Amino acid sequence: MLTVLVEGKSDKVALETLARKVGVSPHWQVVSLGGVTNIRRALDNHTDVAGLCDSGEERFFLKALGVPDRAAMEPLGFFVCERDLEEEFIRALGVEGVERVVEELGQLQTLRTFKNQPFQRSRTAEQQLRRFMGTMSGRKSLYAEALVNALDVIPKPLEKLLEYSLRS
Questions:
Q1: To bridge 46 with a disulfide, which of 3, 98, 116, 163 should be the other Cys (CB 3.0-4.6 Å)?
Q2: Are residues 132 and 97 in the same domain?
Q3: How far apart are CA 159 and CA 12, in angstroms?
Q4: Does 7 share its domain with 71?
Q5: Could you report the per-residue pLDDT of 7-63, keeping only the tens digit for each?
Q6: What's 36-62 look like in SS3?
Q7: Beta-strand runs (E) in 27-126
Q8: Which domain of life is it from (predicted)?
Q9: Are residues 54 and 75 in the same domain?
């Protein structure tokens, strides 16, 4: 069974939801590192591994894997979100698609209030949505599941991870 290493809880929720949605859940288990600095220990404790990280934490994965760059990580089954997983979902669904999910979760008025805060007004809609998802404990995980369920097109890093897991 493939072990997929991810940074945190919301990433784990997203990948487990995606695995169920596309039918690969019996073939892999997702392990949250509880922080990217735990990657070395996780690699030591697991065999047959793959992983997903945010671009800001890519350097930790590169060092732990002993490879020079992102291109060298991919054949090993490790993939990078351009900024983070939330941004990948926003890009895949578009602002309107994410706002539909927010509405379905009953948080549209909360989002509108958030967007109207002085500091948020100058940010792009994408930046506001990313920040909104991370403002309350548990919200990132709630949105991870809901956004995956709303996807019609799988973001590229997740698609590559799925393809790798099916070859393993």
A1: 3
A2: yes
A3: 15
A4: yes
A5: 999 999 999 999 999 988 777 899 999 989 999 999 999 999 999 999 999 999 999
A6: HHHHHHHHHHCCCEEEEEEHHHHHHHH
A7: 28-32, 49-54, 78-81
A8: Bacteria
A9: yes
